[in-house]
Structure formats: structure tokens, C-alpha cells
Write a structure and sequence with these properties.
By secondary structure, this protein is α/β, with parallel strands linked by helices. It has 2 domains: 68 residues, no CATH class; 224 residues, 4-Layer Sandwich (Purple Acid Phosphatase, chain A, domain 2), CATH 3.60.21. Helix content is 23%, strand content 23%. The strands form 4 sheets. It has a 6-stranded mixed sheet with strand order 7-11-12-13-15-14, covered by helices on one side. The protein has a 6-stranded mixed sheet with strand order 10-9-8-16-17-18. It has a 4-stranded antiparallel sheet with strand order 1-4-3-2, covered by helices on one side. It starts with 13 loop residues before the first strand and ends with a strand. The N terminus is likely disordered.
Length: 353
Amino acid sequence: MLLAAVCTANASNLTTASNDDDAPITDGPYVSISPNQLSYHYVCHDKVHQDKRTISTLPHQFSACGLMADIPNLTFKTDLLEYHGDFKVAALSDLHGQYDLMKTLLVNNGIISAQGDWAFGKGHFVITGDVFDRGDKVTEILWFLYRLEKQAEAAGGKVHLLLGNHEVMVLNGDLRYLHPKYVKAAKILATDFEELFSKTTVLGQWLRSKSVLVKINNALYAHGGFHPELAQKKHSLQEINSVFKKSLIKAELPQPREGFARFLHKSNGPIWYRGYFKDDGATADEIDLLLKHFEIEHLIVGHTSQKKIEARYQGKVIAIDSSIKKGEYGELLIIDDKTLMRGTLSGELLAIK
């Protein structure tokens, strides 16, 4: 059961973790769902706190120990896979817990205000996965995007958080890239880290509602990319997403992944594929086949790190993992009509080369 140790806390809803040699941590909240209430658990300077609120009193605004979360409702609808319209698009990838750098990049490029609120109007903002792992502010990014998603919809815009390999790894209990902060948080909370995102939690249900791809106007987005075989065998976007999602978490499946589901979750699937960046990877003809099959002009992917946003295959593939994970620099792809530009950390718009 999620955070079982918290249920035995004293009347003050406070327990003290064991003393570690490293600095105290603050993390959360992690919010579990029961029929009539939401249970908020968070760590404040190595101490576990609990807060319970009834579902009937939604929306909830949580703020404690420098942590924030807004929960307007418990609706986790699955997004469409295709969008068309006259609006700007912004995209970035591989945030890996770098919350502060992400916010600077978004503020300076007009996606959010200085106060952290949606400022992109009817635009669409795509994150092609990998919020989790490596950095130490993963939870902050998740709750930020959760709130921003609601604000964007209210303004007629859209936030698209796609699943990357690190989301899928964490949901499946592959924790090899966790920042030490989260190893410690799980220990303090007396639970396996992946259980903090189980299907009985707000963030767990929200993440399970997310897609692995999205097509917006003339571009197709995914974390890793699309193997040419997907076009050769004429798989549709709907089929790829549906099969991937139905086989998302191994522990929740009645039987092991096989066939197409297994293919999609292995190295040639949309969250792992690196074939656009290898000497023996996809050919120019295979890229053209993918573009023709999916009726697009650009494949936009993260996963494979670059120093800046770069183009491959004469601009048909755009690499948007700009190494934000290092915590030093990052860029944002901006698409205005059919013009693709690099939004730098300072907010300068530059051509993509």
C-alpha cells in the first residue's frame, strides 16, 4: 500500500526519518486517491507530513515547505493524436529534473510569464518526454506541467507531455538513473519509488493518460523516433500509440509483452530509437518513406543529446534534445507557420542548421 509507514504517524501527522550524512531533503507532494478523499504526503527537511482532503472539496491548492500543487479535478482524459490549426508550436525535450533552467527557457521565449503562468495563448507546447531521472526537481516539473496544462486549455492552447523512456522506466521500476534525492525520498516514505506513481495516485493516473506521440500540422513528435519498419508495414499512429499504451507497465499486464507490443518497447520503438543519428541508421529514402506514410514534413525528436537544436536529413528530422539535463544550457524549438527557429536560453530566435 502506498506510503504505509505514514499511516502509523503520530497525531501530529509527523514522523522523523533516520539521520543521514547528506543534507536534508524536501520533496512532494505525492497524492493518493481513495473513494472519498485525497491523501497528500510530502517530505519536509527529512520529515514525513500527511494532509487529507475530501474529493468533494476540489479544487485543491497545496502549498507547504516550498512545495506546490494545484488539483482542479480528477479528470485524466486521453489527448487526441492529431491537431491542425493556425497557431504557434513550441517543443523541447529531456528536462531531467532541471526545473529552474526549464522555467528560465520558457519565460525568455514567451511560453510562460515571469510568475510561471501560461503566456502562449492558443499555441501548443510539446514536451517529448524525459522529465524523470538525473536531476533533483522532477516532482516540481510534474506539478508545474500539470497546472500549466489546465491553464493552456483555458486559454485555447495545449500542453502535450509525451512519454519518454525515463517515464516508462520509472513506471516499470527501473530506477537506475534516479537522483540520490529520490532514492532518499523513497526510503523516508518507506515505499518503492515507482509506487509513488501507481495507478492509485494523481500523478500516476495523469502519466498513464499520456501518449507516446503527437502529430501537429506538418510535424510528428516522439521521444526517440520512428523506425522505418513502421512505415514499411503501414502501421498507423493510432495503432502505434494504442499498442504501446496497452502494454505500458509490465506489472499491470496479464501476460508478458509479445509481438508488436514488444517491438514498440524495445530499442527500435518510439521511446528508444536512435536511428536518425547513427552512421548505419535510417537512410534518406527511409526518412522520405516515413514522411510520406505519416503525411508530414518533419520528424521532431529528443532522446539523443546535441549541444543545440539541430537539423538532420536536410531539415526533415529536427533534434530537440539540447542537453538541458546538464543544467547549463537549453533551447526550445519554435514553429511559427512553417518557419522553424531555435529559441535560445536568452530568448533569441536563431535559424536551425
